[in-house]
Amino acid sequence: MGVSGTGKTVVGRAVAEAMGFEFIEGDKHHPQANIDKMSAGTPLDDDDRRPWLEELAAILQENRTRGTGSVLACSSLKRSYRDILRGDAPPDATFFLHLDLPQDILLKRMQSREHFMPASLLQSQLDTLEPLGADEHGSALDHDDPLPQVVDDAVKLVREAGHTD
Predict the structure, then answer these.
(1) Could you give the number of structural domains in the chain?
(2) I need a surface site. Which of 27, 47, 116, 137 has the fewest CB within 10 A?
(3) How do the residues of the chain divide into helix, strand and coil, expressed in percent and rounded to 5?
(4) What are the tens digits of pLDDT across the range 27-74?
C-alpha cells in the first residue's frame, strides 16, 4: 500500500516472486471511468473507489479460499479501504506493507514515468492517506534503498508476520 510512486508494483511483483505468491496489479482492475477521471487530473472519491476495492477484495478472497498466497499492489489509502480489502477474513489474514517515501522522491518518480495518474494528484493522495493503525496487521517500509534491499526487507517483514503460504 501507499501513494502513487512508492513502487507498489515493482516491489509487489518482486515480493510475490520471492515468496511464490500470485501478484495482482490493482491498477489493472480500475474501471475506465476511474482511469479517465484520474487522467484528467481529478482525484477519485470513495464512491469511485468502492466497486474497484470490492472487486479486488473478491479476488483476494477467492485466492484465500483456494489456498493461494497473494500480493496486491493497491494504494489502500484509508482504513475503510483496507477494511473492504480484508473482507470477512480474520484480522491477521491480510498483512499490509505500507511503502512510504518522502514527497520529493515520489514527485520525481511520478514525473519520470508513463502512468494514467498525473503527478498533480500526488498531494491529494498524501492528504487522503491514513497510515496503518496500531490495531492493523502490517508494517511500514520507509527507505529508498536499491530494489533488492527493499524487496529483502519487505519479504522479511511479511515472513515475520507469519505469512509464508
Answers:
(1) 1
(2) 47
(3) 55, 10, 35
(4) 899 999 998 998 888 888 999 999 999 999 999 999 999 999 999 999
pLDDT band at residue 154, thresholds of 50, 70 and 90?
Answer: very high
Place of cell 482511469: 35
Q: Is residue 2 part of a domain?
A: no
* 97 domain-assigned: yes
Give the pTM: 0.88
78 Cβ contact partners less than 8 Å away, ≥ 6 residues apart: 46, 128, 129, 130
In a domain, 1, yes or no: no
Q: Is the dihedral of CA 118, 124, 127, 129 positive or negative?
A: negative
Query: 48: domain CATH number?
Result: 3.40.50.300
Owner of C-alpha cell 499492489: 73
